[in-house]
Amino acid sequence: MLKIKLKPQIHPEPRPPLEVSNIQVQVSPVEQKVLDFDIECRPLAWLGGDFVTKEITAIAAKFLDEDPIYCWLLGVDEPERMLVEFVELYDRADVVTGHYIRGYDLPTINGALHEYGQPPLDTKLTHDTKLDLIKQQGISGSQENLAAMLGITAPKIQMNNVKWREANRLTEDGLRLTRERAVGDILQHIELRQALMDQGWIGLPKIWHSLPATSSKYRA
Asked: What's 133's DSSP letter?
C-alpha cells in the first residue's frame, strides 16, 4: 500500500501593506524626424489601352526641422543619383509625408529603383494627407482644394498643357518650371498638413510596406 506523508501546511506571516510615496514621472516626447517630399513624372512609353509607363523628372524634399530644400531634376542630375540620394534622406526620416504618397509617389519611386537595380524602399511610417484624411464626400480631396479651404498662403504652382510639354522636354525653361512646381508642392503641403492636424481633419500616420502585407521576400 502506498503511503503518502503530508507535510504540515505553513501559513506565512501576513506582509504589511506596501506604501508608495507620491512619485511624479515626467515623460519627454520623442521628436520625430519628418520628411516632406513630392515627385513629378513624365510619360515614357505607351503599352496600349490606358497604360503609360512613367519616368521621374523631379524629386523635392525637405525635413521639417531643417532649412535646406532638396530638389533633383532629370536633365540636370543622373536618374540613379536622384534616387540614391533621395533614399539617403528617406532612411534618415522617422516619418515621410506628402499628398497621396502611399498611392503614387512611394510606389513610383520603388518602380524606378527596380529599373535601376537598387533595393526597394524600407518600411516606413507615413502621413498621407489624402489617404489619412477624415471620411468625407461632396468636396475635392486634392491638395490644392484642401489648401484653399484652409486658407493656406503658400500657392500651388499651376501648370497648363503648354508648360507641361516644355517641362517634359527638359528644356531650360521646362526645368525651371518643374523645379518650381515640385518645391512649391512641398512648401504648400507642409502648411496644409499642420493645418489638418490642428483642426483634427487627419488621422494618425500609418506604416507603408514595399511588400504586400501577406508576403515576405523570397530567396532561392
From this structure: B
**What is residue 219's DSSP assignment?**
-
- What CA–CA distance (Å, rounded) separates 203 from 115? 33
Please state the three-class secondary structure of 66-91 as a single string: CCCCEEEEECCECHHHHHHHHHHHHH
CA distance 35 to 155: 20
User: Could you identify the residue written with the cell 494618425?
Assistant: 204
In tens, the pLDDT along 24-51 reads: 544 445 689 999 999 999 999 988 777 8
Sequence-ordered alpha helix ranges (H) in 53-171: 79-92, 106-115, 143-149, 161-168
Could you read off the pLDDT of 149-197 as tens digits, one per residue?
999 999 999 999 999 999 999 999 999 999 999 999 999 999 999 999 9
**How many other β-carbons are positioned within 10 Å of the β-carbon of residue 35?**
23
CB 70: neighbour CB atoms within 10 A? 18
Domains and CATH numbers, the chain: 34-208 (3.30.420.10)
Rounded to the nearest 5 percent, the helix, strand and coil shares of the chain are 30, 20, 45
What b-and-e string marks burial along 95-130, b requiring 16 or more CB atoms within 10 Å of the CB? ebbbbbbbebbbebbbebbeeeeeebbeebbbbbbb
126 neighbors 206 (Cβ within 8 angstroms): yes
Angle (deg, nearest 10), helices 106-115 and 79-92: 130
DSSP state of 156: P
